[in-house]
Design a protein that fits this description.
single chain; about 550 residues; alpha+beta; Butyryl-CoA Dehydrogenase, subunit A, domain 3; four-stranded mixed β-sheet
Length: about 550
């Protein structure tokens, strides 16, 4: 795919401007993107635009995305040392591949309807992960897209949190401007256009370390346990703090930072939202451990379960990071912090009705294959367990679709899901994947966790014994039997279990957070009235 690039000026957090060239480093707001359709008649038009000092870019391919990440100066630490090349690090690379898949799928005509959309800002074709929902159809397609990506990666593909941040910030900035006469909405639209035109991946950062949960931000022993504004300048603000459990930060070009909870009057410094490049001065990250993560260093394809795709989490530190005024979306308007949190949480709880379902599809398929390889596929109890797994998985999907179909427009015009049903969706996600995983472990059998390593299988002396005694159905190779067992292990106990199990519990808020929202939005008073009317009770 051709791409015509001219030099642009990039505003850095140091408030200096540096000249850069190339598709990966275009960081100004003024770059215009061309779609596949535009590129078909590219030569004259693109050359003309380039002569005017404008870059012309298409939807990035997966490989272009990978190369764009190479050009970032990310500060990444893992196992007590700095990672000089995160893109090619064997532990981190599978997580990058998962994001790459979202670019590859957007290039496939078969999935264009789900993976792409028309920008409300430019009218051009964009990746749906950068789209502002304009209808219930958009909300439904979002869930279907997430299921597809989960099916193709069997891992966390990391772009949902950014998409959900876009849509939450879009409506919240509109309403903040409406009340205070601020310019946050215009700031955000310019930032969003910039992201869409460059086809960037954007992380969403909401969760603070929080410290003592019984105390508000301003009463913490260490005031930095919630991210806050520490300095206000004529041209911007300086922030300090950290964001925990950051899925995909290491694979993102930009990050949108949001408050972690509703803020009171005394916590105005913590009511801040903004966007900065992930390699901005003062930002560094410490990658979290995952179960079986060092298996990726052993050179085995079988033992890791999923050799191509994976996920990652990190603690991201903001050590006095400068944010220019045009990148600020909330700054002290504390009553809107809760609005932003509620909307983001709602969108993200909807997301789990898609992504976890797609991964669940893979796990159900793996369990069925394991039954085949074990010679147990005809057993009635095996069939029943597979039916139950499917029932639970599709129930999750139903909630994701339902909250989307019941969506309504906000004042800004973008669509918000039904918050009650979104919270019901996520409440189910805190439970059903665990049962699906349990049933998969039941069907697979003990070999899933007691099988020898790939090195044992391929050892000149040991291999023949491994092959002989760990074979199931004779027509199926022992290697293939071990491959499917390791995939199930990866999803239920290994590195992918971070995303499929624990993230299902705590991602987008703990189970109690959804129960609180269900209580608030369940309209119990209306239901009591219905009952009294039927019972003919008058008061």
């Amino acid at each position: 795919m051709d791409c015509f690039i001219v030099g642009q000026f990039r505003k850095r957090n140091t408030r200096a401007y540096e000249f850069q060239k190339g598709p990966a480093n275009q960081k100004s707001f003024g770059c215009i993107a061309a779609t596949h359709k535009n590129l078909s008649r590219k030569d004259a038009a693109a050359t003309k635009m380039a002569a005017k000092g404008t870059c012309v870019m298409a939807l990035m391919t997966g490989e272009q995305y990978v190369e764009s990440m190479r050009k970032l100066n990310l500060q990444v630490y893992m196992f007590g040392k700095k990672i000089e090349n995160p893109v090619d690090d064997p532990i981190l690379r599978p997580s990058l591949n998962s994001v790459k898949a979202t670019y590859d799928l957007a290039q496939d005509p078969e999935y264009a309807d789900l993976m792409t959309a028309k920008s409300i800002l430019t009218g051009e074709t964009i990746n749906r992960f950068t789209h502002i929902h304009q209808s219930t159809d958009d909300l439904i397609k979002k869930v279907k897209m997430q299921r597809l990506c989960g099916q193709k990666t069997a891992a966390c593909f990391q772009r949902c949190v950014g998409m959900d941040a876009f849509n939450a910030v879009y409506s919240t900035t509109y309403e903040t401007d409406e009340k205070y006469g601020t310019h946050y909405h215009e700031n955000f639209k310019k930032f969003l256009q910039y992201v869409q035109e460059h086809d960037y991946t954007v992380d969403g950062a909401m969760t603070d370390p929080k410290g003592d949960r019984s105390l508000p931000p301003h009463l913490q022993a260490d005031p930095d346990l919630y991210l806050r504004v520490v300095e206000k300048r004529p041209d911007g603000i300086v922030v300090r703090g950290a964001k925990a459990h950051q899925t995909g930060f290491v694979n993102s070009h930009e990050v949108i930072v949001m408050p972690t909870q509703a803020m009171g009057e005394d916590d105005k410094d913590y009511a801040v939202a903004f966007a900065v490049p992930t390699d901005a001065k003062g930002i560094f990250m410490i990658v979290g451990r995952q179960s079986c993560d060092t298996r990726k260093l052993e050179g085995s394809e079988i033992d890791v379960g999923n050799s191509e795709f994976g996920g990652t989490e990190a603690l991201v530190i903001f050590d006095d990071v400068f944010v220019p005024n045009e990148r600020i979306f909330l700054n002290g308007e504390n009553e809107f912090a809760g609005v932003l949190v509620e909307r983001f949480a709602g969108y993200h709880r909807q997301s789990y009705g898609g992504c976890k379902v797609g991964v669940g599809d893979v796990l159900i398929g793996a369990a069925a294959v394991a039954a085949d390889f074990n010679g147990a596929q005809k057993a009635s109890h095996i069939k029943d367990k597979l039916i139950e797994m499917t029932h639970l998985n599709e129930t999750l999907y139903c909630c994701g679709i339902a909250c989307s179909a019941e969506g309504r427009p906000t004042k800004s015009g973008n669509y918000l899901i039904d918050l009650l049903l979104a919270n019901v969706c996520k409440q189910n996600v805190t439970r059903f994947p665990y049962e699906i995983a349990r049933l998969a472990e039941d069907i697979a059998g003990g070999l899933m966790v007691t099988a020898p390593s790939e090195k044992d299988l391929k050892d000149p002396f040991l291999g023949k014994y491994v092959d002989k005694y760990f074979r199931g159905v004779n027509a199926v190779s022992t290697e293939n039997r071990l491959r499917i067992m390791r995939l199930i292990e990866n999803l239920t106990l290994g590195a992918a279990a971070v995303g499929y199990r624990t993230e299902s519990m705590h991602g987008a808020g703990s189970p109690q957070a959804q129960r609180i929202m269900i209580s608030r939005q369940g309209n119990l008073a209306m239901k009591k009235k219905l009952a009294k009317d039927i019972a003919k009770i008058t008061e």
